[in-house]
Design a protein that fits this description.
Number of helices: 3
Structural class: alpha+beta
Number of strands: 7
CATH architecture: Alpha-Beta Complex
Strand content: 25-35%
Order of helices and strands: HEHHEEEEEE
Helix content: 10-25%
Radius of gyration: 14 Å
Strand order of the largest sheet: 1-6-5-4-3-7-2
Largest sheet: 7 strands, antiparallel
CATH class: Alpha Beta
Distance between the termini: 34 Å
Shape: globular
Length: 147
């Protein structure tokens, strides 16, 4: 079902098969959701108010995000395409040059995103959230599935 509010924030969702998968919550954010952690809000704030892996620098830049996801076994890759045996996340970069969002690929190649303090959604393409709100897809990471 189309959501006019979400489509106003993310115009590329219009006409696609997206849907809400979890209600709004402030328990976790997109970084935590991508990291499969629904118990913490992840933020690289310099004051340590939020969870952030201790091995990663507490800076809001791509290197800090890469280091945080490296603690989970992720490494950079080139493609958002589904690869058997791998899980992927995408880091978006806002117009200000800073990381603005993280989405996680699901086993069928679709994507899941926690939209700030709002809902979690399933969306078909990583690029569906590109635009004014989150900027553009900037970096793709993958890790080998261990199950």
């Amino acid at each position: 079902m189309a959501d006019p509010y979400l489509e106003s924030l993310f115009p590329r969702l219009r006409g696609t098969s997206y849907h809400e998968t979890s209600p709004a919550t402030t328990e976790y954010n997109c970084i935590a959701w991508a990291a499969l952690d629904t118990l913490h809000w992840w933020e690289p704030d310099p004051f340590g108010l939020y969870f952030w892996p201790s091995e990663a620098p507490r800076r809001n830049d791509l290197d800090a995000y890469l280091a945080a996801f490296a603690t989970l076994g992720y490494e950079r890759c080139e493609s958002v395409d589904l690869e058997v045996g791998f899980e992927k996340v995408v880091i978006y970069k806002g117009r200000d040059g800073f990381p603005s969002h993280v989405a996680r690929q699901l086993h069928d190649g679709s994507w899941t995103s926690k939209l700030g303090r709002d809902v979690d959604i399933l969306h078909i393409n990583a690029d569906d959230l590109e635009g004014v709100e989150y900027g553009a897809r900037f970096c793709v990471l993958r890790r080998r599935v261990t199950s």
